[in-house]
Write a structure and sequence with these properties.
The chain is of the alpha+beta class and 321 residues long. The chain has one domain: Oxidoreductase, molybdopterin-binding domain (Sulfite Oxidase, Chain A, domain 2), CATH 3.90.420.
Length: 321
């Protein structure tokens, strides 16, 4: 039986975006250390101090890779780190405080499924094997809010190659940590926990696909998916699974978290397309975090030149919801 629950990001977007202004602040924030936002939000200052003590902090800021463009204007750091969807901690956008309870060390990722040999790897051991870089990407939520942020991390291709999948593997399946004692929303058994998402193998190997471990020149905050998360910027944000603890390779297409809840609205592919509306709202425009002005949404979120070819032979499938 399908249980339809209207929560958080299923609200009309006009109810979801906070007031405020945004500006280019990358240089300013680094110059000020914790930044002016910390003065207004002591809890956020504490979170940023916690990030500075992360054992991987010395890897950031990472060298910038501009190959995939540098969209502007950059979203203000405070906006991107205090307005978050992370349903494991709650159904509103102000979960960043609750997320500080999540301990990200020690952190182990299990690799399994169709691989040469299943194994486990600690986050810091994994980081030591990867070349960390920074990429500025657009992020487009299915709710129609958006942001532009500087992620740090490594190409997903590097992670796939590290895992050594078998030739028959067609999909990469990723899952979020399950820890109801801290992630209190996981106690709600009406949701199909743990959060599960996946990419087709050619999507995962695409140059644009990214595993983020940092944000704004620092280790990624808990509320944004620490210590590692998927960033597939041509897809709606719900595809970008956070706080990953397992990666499996399969020859079968997985059924993702929101797809299990409402497949008619949240499909597996979930590519951004302004001409294909959500069942309950238009996707033609978006509102950047902190802005009062809507802007046009771009096909594949502006990354068509890098990813459109992935779907040439998949046009019969529902690619855009």
């Amino acid at each position: 039986m399908l249980i339809k629950r209207v929560r958080g990001w299923e609200l009309p977007e006009r109810q979801a975006t906070p007031e405020g202004t945004y500006m280019q602040r990358r240089t300013l924030v680094r110059a000020m250390g914790l930044g002016a936002a910390s003065l207004a939000l002591p809890g956020l200052a504490l979170a940023q101090n916690k990030a500075a003590s992360d054992p991987s902090a010395g890897r950031y800021p990472a060298p910038r890779n501009d190959k995939y463009g540098v969209p502007t204007p950059m979203t203000e750091e405070r906006q991107a780190t205090t307005y978050n969807n992370f349903y494991e901690f709650g159904t509103d956008k102000s979960i960043w405080r609750a997320a500080q309870k999540l301990e990200v060390r020690p952190w182990t990722i299990k690799i399994g499924g169709m691989v040469e040999k299943p194994f486990e790897v600690g986050i810091d051991d994994l980081l030591a094997k990867m070349q960390i870089e920074e990429r500025v990407y657009r992020h487009r939520c299915v709710e129609t809010w958006s942001m532009i942020v500087p992620w740090s991390g490594f190409p997903m291709r590097s992670l796939v190659e590290f895992c050594k999948p078998l030739s028959g593997a067609k999909y990469v399946v990723m899952k979020t940590l399950s820890k109801p004692s801290v992630m209190r929303e996981q106690r709600d058994l009406l949701y199909p926990w743990p959060y599960t998402e996946g990419l087709a193998m050619d999507e995962a190997m695409n140059d644009l696909a990214f595993i983020a471990t940092g944000l704004y020149g620092k280790p990624i905050p808990q509320q944004n998916g620490a210590p590692l998360r998927l960033v597939a910027p041509w897809k709606y944000g719900f595809k970008n699974v956070k706080s990953i603890v397992s990666i499996d390779f399969s020859d079968k297409q997985p059924v993702s978290f929101w797809e299990k809840l409402q497949a008619s609205e949240y499909g597996f592919w979930a590519n951004v397309n302004p001409e294909v509306p959500h069942a309950r709202w238009s996707q033609a425009t978006e509102k950047p975090l902190g802005s009062s002005t809507r802007i046009p949404t771009l096909l594949y979120n502006g990354y068509a030149e890098f990813v459109a070819g992935l779907y040439t032979d998949r046009k019969a499938e529902k690619l855009f919801y």
